[in-house]
Fold this sequence. Notes:
Distance between the termini: 31 Å
Number of helices: 5
Strand order of the largest sheet: 1-2
Structural class: mainly alpha
Order of helices and strands: EEHHHHH
Helix content: 25-40%
Shape: globular
Number of strands: 2
Amino acid sequence: MDRWGVDVLITGSQKALMLPPGLALIALSERAWARAEKHPQRAYYFDLLRERTNQAKNTTAYTPAISLVIGLREAAGDDAGRGLRQRLRPPRAPGASDACGGHRRSACAWWRPTIPARQ
């Protein structure tokens, strides 16, 4: 974001994150946070300063969609170290050798446990 001069980045869980719709993700630059802190009116539902304060306490200001948050954590772990080109590459053909024992990666994902083990 800094390199491109982007102050606010917003996306949804359905946008290339391998999740159903329902989770909004937002990132603010320091400049955007400074402007938000100076704004005289804050909304109740979309209060980013309230959410930032709660995040610092390892909690949320609002009830999160837990299943989507867990899914996001899993999807982020699956994609660690993979670039955009590799992520958008079509899955291997059936029978090709890969970590799923010859099955397509997308089919293998159906068998992954929904709730990850505690760490």
